[in-house]
Amino acid sequence: MDLQQQIAELREKFFKKLEDETPSDERGFHPDDLTRIRTRDEYLKRWLEHTDFNVQESVNMLWSTCEWRRKVGANEITEDSVNREYLQDGVVFGYGKDRDGRGMFVIKSKLHVKGVRDFGELQKCIIYWFERLEREGNEQITLFFDMCEAGLSNMDMEFTKYLITLFKYYYPNYLNNIILLEMPWVLNAALKIIKSWLPAKATPKIKQVNKSGLKEFVDPSVALVCWGGENDYKFTFVPEIRNGVNSVNGKLDNKKVHFAEASPLSEQPSSGFGDQSTEDSMIAITPDVLSFNKEGQEIVGTIAVKNQTADKCISYKLKTTAPEKFRVRRSNGVLLPAQQVTMTISLQPGFNLRSLLHNDKFLIMCLPMEDAKMTAEELVDFWKTNEKSAEQHRVWCRDGTGETTSILSPGSSGSERTMDQLHTKLSHLEECHGKLHKELRTLKHVMIISIIWTVVAAIAIVYILRLDIGQIITGDQSCHLHRE
Description:
Radius of gyration: 33 Å
Mean pLDDT: 80
Strand content: 15-25%
Largest sheet: 10 strands, mixed
Helix content: 25-40%
Order of helices and strands: HHHHHEEHEHEHEEEEEEEEEEEEEEHEH
Shape: elongated
Distance between the termini: 129 Å
């Protein structure tokens, strides 16, 4: 059974279950969630990948997630419904992208102390950022634990376990990496427990690095100065702009996309041809989603462009959102009526399949030509004058290796009982650390007081001894005078 059949089966079984069963919440499932399931194949694909393509398990997990989303109000959470102070204090926030192009969810560990914040409000804050990052087009995110200057008092296993629970059960195939920057050695025991909560195939996703090693995962131009990078960004909360957001597909409409070679182009079709249907367009593009595969030492994909007209010569050219990542052969040219050309696109050295993003796009434009014998200089001027009215086609990227299995498939997790026991032991360790820290502070005060009393007593003893010695000397002198 191919992927599309599995997606169709998942959708059919889910809605059959909805006909036969009633959700636990009397309000039923949220309309946006149901619309997403009806219309978004990519969303259902994530569930299949997460469960190793077990359709029935995907149905059950999707059902549980819809119940959870209705219970916590995931679709209604905005910055107005979250504790604003938690959004502004910079303990958790979304920032930048890692080298894989995944958005980073930053946890500033030294600013978080267990029990100081209301955990329920903190959970809502995390859901807000997960939903926001997803709406901003991040198919996956990287957890970035900034542990610089953190200690045992900043360790909160309940908080960490909640994050992992979200990835395991409610945000399928959403985790890219877990970066631990400058983790203190005293937290090694906590790291072992965190690893036990993850499936075995997920533990390689944990990247424990220092400031000098961070550049392997985050470009120095993105990394903050406090991480050893070059970016002097200081976190300030900026409310999300929701105008034009499609709440069903979770994508921003009319957002700007930068293609190489020219000024930014709007994702919305410009005046003139714009993005057109296959029947109306002058050229046919195959495929509409570019799949990359390894061929020898190169990672390549191909795009076929065909002139569909019977009487027009057409000039075409290709642009990309990431010119530093791709090398394109035959990126522009002229097509005679019914002629076809194949463009070869290769990943540049230093990039790999994991660096492909869903928002890495190619823009293929074409214009009808009256004179097919234009010189190169004339073609440049021709495009400068007419580019705004060009027909536009967009092609997205994907990894063609088929390695799409989720690293957080629940079926591969360890014993929950063992994890709970480990969690209990670490919580006990936390409690003992707190008591020991308090006792040490008390002991420190006692020692200081003891030292002060000792010094005072020593001074008093010396004073008394000197006084007695003086009296003895005076007495001796008196006796001597009396005998004389």
